[in-house]
Specification:
15% of the residues lie in helices and 31% in strands. The protein is α/β, with parallel strands linked by helices. The longest helix is centred in the N-terminal third of the chain and has 17 residues.
Length: 213
């Protein structure tokens, strides 16, 4: 399977590293053909782990018709991932670190990335193009929309719902059954004890909304 990485920043480095580890430990035949980034300059050589940047993101239009080509949007910004996935309806693949743990009856949407030591427990549904970051835990029967980012060391308890494009900050905790709306930002280290509406920036222990976004 051929894979093209969309994005050439820090998040892309981690995604590439996951693919390389899957090849090393699971013997998967994934061939990273190149990186696509809008800062591409044909006069400047840029590589990540010896993988070259081969063109701007719009170059996917020339690559998408090859049945062996798959893509992953390796960009941390939720809104940019959302915009690109809508603009370019491609064959997206999920990238799962070999140390991730996925329970029974879990659904993982196309384009989602699960990083080292992340956990998604039984009965949960993870949408498209999500990031379940390093050592993040999503417990049983949760529902995450599309383009969500669960940051490192976050703990999402059972039965939680998180809306599209929301960002759960590093080390936050969410108690069982809580709902977090769309386009909401939960600050680092926050403890979420009650529902948080859409388009809200909230933080603290207990977590409280501070402004609309």
């Amino acid at each position: 399977m051929n894979i093209y990485i969309i994005g050439a920043g820090g998040h892309a480095k981690v995604v590439i590293d996951i693919i390389l580890k899957r090849r090393e430990f699971l013997n998967e035949e994934w061939d990273i053909k190149g990186i696509l980034d809008d800062l591409y300059d044909p006069n400047l050589k840029k590589e990540l782990f010896n993988i070259p940047v081969v063109g701007k993101i719009c170059h996917v239009l020339e690559l998408k018709n090859d049945d062996e080509n798959y893509f992953v949007i390796a960009i941390g910004n939720n809104n940019i991932r959302s915009e690109l996935s809508k603009k370019y309806p491609l064959k997206y693949c999920s990238i799962i670190h070999p140390t991730s743990v996925i329970g029974n009856d879990v659904k993982i949407g196309a384009g989602t990335v699960m990083m080292a030591n992340s956990v998604v427990n039984s009965g949960s549904c993870i949408g498209k193009h999500n990031i379940i970051n390093t050592a993040a835990i999503v417990d049983h029967d949760c529902f995450l929309g599309d383009h969500v980012h669960v940051s490192p060391n976050s703990a999402i308890a059972g039965g939680v719902k998180i809306g599209d494009r929301s960002w759960m900050g590093i080390g936050c905790c969410v108690i069982p059954g809580v709902s977090v709306g769309e386009d909401t930002i939960i600050g680092a280290g926050s403890v979420v004890l009650r529902d948080v509406p859409s388009n809200t920036k909230a933080f603290g222990n207990p977590c409280r909304g501070i402004e609309r976004v």
